[in-house]
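Changelog note: in this version the structure field was regenerated for every chain. One regenerated record is shown below for reference.
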Amino acid sequence: MREASFDDLDGIADLTAGRSGVEVEKLPPWDQSEVPANPGDRRLFIVESDGAVVGFGRVARLEIPSLPSGWYLAGAVIDADHATSELGHVLTRKRLDWIGERAPEAFSCADSDDSASIIRHAELGFDEVANPGLKGNALLYRISLPLKPAFKSRR
């Protein structure tokens, strides 16, 4: 697992198209500000298997008036053939470790109807945070960093 490079964008597009059912040519252009050549407030991490991108996840530093300012886990996609593996947990730990080198906490959002996401947040050690700035079924979560060693070795 590593930070994405420009060379990974085609593989990420293929994975995104496969998961969304949209042809690669019809996807919007990839936001290249997430790759390391453009340092800033966003990063993109990938997971490879046999040289192919099989997962990716984002982090973003958000400054939105209705939310706490800070680093957020900003979504992850794992190839369906690898969905039952540990890749999702590994990808999340990598992103949290990366944020932990820059900040004392991280945030994440989930839909209150997504029981799997709620369970994953609890397993990771996130605490739900009351936030009247979120709309609809959105829940806000916070975790202190760096991660505790027990979490890192659990999976």
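Spot check on this record: The chain has a mean pLDDT of 84. The first strand starts at residue 2 and ends at 3.
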